[in-house]
Design a protein that fits this description.
The chain is of the alpha/beta class and about 280 residues long. Helices cover about 55% and strands about 5% of the residues. Helix 2 crosses helix 3. The longest helix is centred in the first third of the chain and has 23 residues.
Length: about 280
């Protein structure tokens, strides 16, 4: 069985400063400070850009070749406040993650079914509005935790992690990948957390393709054929189960193998005559 993914949530000065320097200007004082550094230390500012991966490769032992820009920001009162805010965000995001740890593990063990590296999650200021996946095993996040729907931040993180741990496909097949990742994270995972179906969520342009893929997705999840009707009612996606031979091997695949199965059999799967119109009574 695929092991669960461990995560460590970190606020690191160098990662935070790098994102403040090269991300969106989150306040007037920060904008002015960046402009002042640029005007005075243009070469140093430019050379700092290449530090990103070096920091992330060994953040505990990173020493910049030139620390001029870092020191200027570290010495400001604004930075003190920004770091405290990032620490608060770290606790908020970590709380959402830990609260849903059981479902997080289920996602990777039973839905994705692929071994995923442990992750260092670097938390930066929420005003930066960023989820970045610069390398394997590293996520940078600066996002507001919605008080009414805190799970949104979790879905965003998982979508980025899963997407970056699955190989790229030819452009004409990328929609298959996107649709199936939505099934995994935005639909099945989110449904398990919320206790209500979220299968109508996702990009509108993928909805038609997802209706074609949905019967095979249920087979992938290992749903017995005699339970299809319950899932159709739950998710409000209608199909004629009698027109689908049950593909037993799908429940033994990982998500990458399932995407490849769908791409390989796309001409058979995407057939207009097998999807009922919305007003047809099948259930």
């Amino acid at each position: 069985m695929v092991s669960s993914m461990n995560t460590k949530f970190i606020v690191n000065d160098y990662v935070l400063i790098w994102n403040l320097l090269f991300g969106a200007s989150i306040s007037e004082p920060i904008y002015k400070l960046k402009q002042k550094i640029w005007d005075t230390y243009k070469n140093e500012y430019n050379s700092t850009f290449k530090d990103k991966l070096e920091i992330l490769n060994d953040y505990k032992n990173f020493i910049p070749n030139n620390d001029t820009v870092y020191n200027i920001i570290l010495d400001t009162k604004d930075y003190e406040k920004l770091k405290k805010q990032a620490e608060i965000s770290r606790l908020e995001i970590m709380k959402v993650w830990d609260k849903n740890k059981k479902e997080n593990d289920y996602l990777y063990k039973h839905i994705i079914r692929k071994k995923i590296s442990n992750y260092d999650v670097f938390v930066v200021n929420k005003e930066l509005n960023v989820i970045d996946h610069p390398k394997e095993g590293v996520l940078i996040i600066g996002k507001e935790v919605d008080k009414k729907e805190p799970v949104k931040v979790l879905l965003g993180m998982h979508m980025v992690i899963v997407k970056n741990n699955i190989k790229r496909y030819k452009e004409e097949y990328e929609d298959f990948k996107k649709a199936i990742l939505e099934f995994a994270v935005l639909n099945e995972f989110a449904t398990r957390i919320s206790g209500r179906s979220t299968y109508q969520s996702g990009l509108p342009k993928l909805q038609t393709l997802k209706r074609f893929l949905y019967p095979y997705w249920l087979m992938y999840l290992g749903v017995p054929k005699d339970e299809f009707t319950n899932y159709m009612m739950r998710d409000k996606i209608v199909f004629d189960a009698d027109k689908y031979p049950y593909e037993k091997e799908l429940k033994r695949m990982d998500i990458e193998e399932f995407i490849e199965f769908c791409i390989r059999n796309r001409r058979y799967i995407v057939r207009e005559n097998i999807i009922p119109k919305l007003d047809e009574e099948v259930i």
